[in-house]
Structures
1.
Amino acid sequence: MLNVLVVEDEQDLCALLAETLADEGYAVACAKDGAEGLAAAAATPFDVVLADLRLPKIDGLTLFRRLRVESPKTDVIVMTGDAAVKEAVALLKEGAFDYLTKPINFEELRVQLQRLMAFRSLRRDVAAVRTELRQPPSSRDRLVGHSPGMLKLIKRIETMAQSDAAVLITGESGTGKELVARSLHESSGRRARRFVAVNCAAFPDTLIEAELFGHERGAFTGAVGRREGRFKAADGGTLFLDEVAELSPAAQAKLLRVLQEGTIEPLGSNDTMKVDVRIISATHRNLRARVAAGLFREDLYYRINTLDIAIPPLRSRGGDLAILVQHFIKRFSSAPRATRGITWRAWNALAAYPFPGNVRELMHTIEHAVLLAAGGEIGLEHLPGAVRGETGALSVAPPMVPLKSALKEFERAYLVRTLGEFDDRKSKAADSLGISRKNLWEKLKMHGICVTPDVESEADAKSDDPTVT
């Protein structure tokens, strides 16, 4: 739980806040003015300081700015009256976590602190993996993520790399199919030879065969000289056929023959050349459906699909988003003006966005944000409009609702997402949220969230039973 310092000159309110937070399980200390609060923060590392903007000796604004310098790991929530809301909002842009208006809504405060715990946990996770992201020497090291789907993918790559069998990689656009193909090559016995990639959708039907198999001078209009194809260039190594589903029927037939016989015949030549190439193919399309529709040869499908790898979309890689965000911030930050981090509002927008373009879209999003942040923290205003939910004429903005209703809706959505990440294991979900299992059950009941029966051990269940000693 959080270690909280309340800085408030109204002693009754300060005592009420301290008592309420202590009942929630937080460790709480109080200070009656800004100078006393600053001294307390210097003596004890607090997780969060809950400070009034109007304080004697040192005002809340000065206190916040001093804490940013002297206790950078301490988050600040400011309290203010209606007349000073603009000042509180300005502090958010400087890095304050959030603000509360007086009179204090204690349910809103609870939600803010729970959200803060989740955000601080995220920052700890990011810090723990930074050493893994420093200077990735290979494609395998650029497969960033610790989610079950990514760990399964990495294990599958390690197993398949030892074979020379053909591999078909499937996945949505932007999931990193070429990166997986390169990882297979760099982990294989062919890593000393070339990895050659060709995008089958980038060449018209009249040129794709020449690109793959080579051609002699005069083989077609524009063939002013002899050229070796990609198969010959990849001899002894790996040939990656990206967007293989886009091959024309003629190219499919010739590719099938090459895979069957292990030889190629350049356009305009009657000579055959033996090649030793491992084929790795990739597509975002459903090849089985294309076979059924007569758009892709069934015999070729089985030739390129001896082994298969399916890459999970980013939206199903729970927990990997934070690691990837940090990875791309580090990648795109320049040394003199390195980006300091990301605000929780920006993080919430990233976490809520489905990323239909997957990791590629996330990479461009963070590059965009790092450039606009110009060495500061990435804020919500630095993210592209689509990520912020600004879809223009494509959709209608949601209606405004009372803050209490919005907070309740956010808490419900956050609980559902957390349970999903832990497969409805409520003890683990409660630990992640920083609350007791009993408190979690109460919240689930309050929000009307139905969950599947526990898959946790009997010991876990008994640990929450007050009658068990």
2.
Amino acid sequence: MAQREPPHFDRSVPPHANHRPAERPPVTARGVALEVLEDIEERAAWLQPALEAALHRNILSRVDQGLARELVAGTLRWQARLDHALDQHARQGMERTPVPIRRVLRMAAYQLLFLERIPAHAAVNGAVEQARALGGEPMARLSNAVLRKLADLGEVPPRGDEPTALAARLSQPRWLVLRWLAEGGPALAARRGAALNRPAPLTIRPDRTSLAPTVLANRLRQEGATVHPGLYAAEALHVEDHPDPFGGHAFGDGWWKVQDEAAQLVGYLVDPQPGETVWDVCAAPGGKTRHLARLMKGQGRLLATDVHPGKADRLGRALADIECAQAKHHDGTEPLGGPPPFDRVLVDAPCSGLGVLRRHPELKWRRQPEDIAGLVELQARILTAASAGVKPGGVLVYSVCTDTPEEGSRQIEAFLARNPSFQLEDPPVGPIDWTPVLDGAFLRTRTEDHGCDAFFGARLRKVQ
């Protein structure tokens, strides 16, 4: 059975504390980070909602909030590498270490190996106190011994291109490394693994219908940010060095939304025109829907649906100015009342999410290779059902945020073999230079090549 999709966290919605409240709320960055790591590992929480909920519950300075974010994301990102380093100094090994203490050791090891600005004694002492609170003096002594050895002797990363060594050195699941090796050998595995371990930049686009990117960029610069135009998407902006991007007036006034360049390209692949009828089939949480609305200049009919009641309800609240409905069927299709023919239909399908591991490092430790087959079956059902909503001459766009061929090109090839009334066509002529992101007629971005999320997209025309 496929695991749940990671949420695309919407910072415009106030964080809701949907995790257990701490009996004694942590008051330090390390305490908050450890609480979030526990939520992620023990209760299958997703990083961003769990982190925002914890920061909402606990009062921390802006600097400590940043440290808490760094500790959680970094510890998850480098988990396998950290375990390998700790194993070199832990007599009993990480596998036999109690799970709560393992989290403490990993977080401290991340500080020792990756955060030069944090003194070693601060990382070790903080971890020893956490271990003492969780397991008494025996666990405090164990943590002190292991971490002091790591601080003094460092790590010896595994060498060579054997899959197990690569997986530990790159801190990636072995099954995923095996896929990369089969696709392009050790060089590709090393490049892709390294790229997915780099934090994603803050990439945004204007949200107001008539707001020009240059106007938005100037306002963000007035707030102290460094702003660069995107490389591929016409309205994308990369924001750096903003003192508080989500606390600034531009965000508070609804001027912009977070959206990776690859995700923005999907909207341009749909290319909705003002006055048309458009259906976003798997719309939650609504980022691509809002982009479609902007491209339509607020003119025409735009329907956003999702099959999950909770997601559909949140979608309706987030997109108050857009028609939203809960889909009838478990495959996420057919809005209430049945789908009339649409000029354009977008299926941004549930997928393995392997293209967004920069943003969801917890996902790589949850996803299993057998999940992909179930997702491929679900995607095929959604595509088939959604295609019935496309009028003759209309456009069907399929996209996924992953790089597996089963969920990408093979999925489309199988659909076209079953549905001769559809034909694959090139992306539309317009504001996008598609050349750098095309693989034949397919949209295909790779993090190691393009610096954005790994996406696949296909544009199909209903010819009869």
3.
Amino acid sequence: MSDALTVYFDFTCGYSYRAMHWIDLIPDLTVEWRTFSLKEVNREPDESWLEATSPPSVSVFAQALAHAARAGDYNRYHHAVFEAMHGEHLRLSEDEFLAIAADAGADVEAFNKDRGAWVARVGDEHYDAVEQLGAYGTPTVVLDGAAAYLRLAEAPRSEEEARTILDGLRGLASSTANLVEVFRPPAPPNPPIQIGQTL
């Protein structure tokens, strides 16, 4: 069976990076990556980072370039940026993001001519997620019309593990329960001490 996901992401988010590796393990999964800005979520009142005239932000710049990269090899840009930022823990400059985008076939000259319009595209996707889905963080995954904020403790190591996560999401998406949030706390590092137990 072929599944389709929409994933709202931010390049600065380690959970989005893990989600990318999870998704990569499922070859028949169709994915639409959409931008969502954590910088915008945490902004001061009356100060947006996602308008054509907004002050520059390297994280929003990287996402704006992701829109430009859709005309080239989007996956190449997407993976290269995530691996540089999270796999190699690099702090990239605008010039380095532009070089990655150019390598992926994006028209960086056209991008540079109207950066504001590309930033506004990030804003369009971000506010669509907020207004239509109630999204507040990344990654927000949409499956069968249901949205879920998903944080993986670690990326799965096999296709079987990856599909188990997808099946779990499918179960939540199709549930008639009015779920707002599901949180599974980590197991305690040591078993709890029983009353009357000697140390």
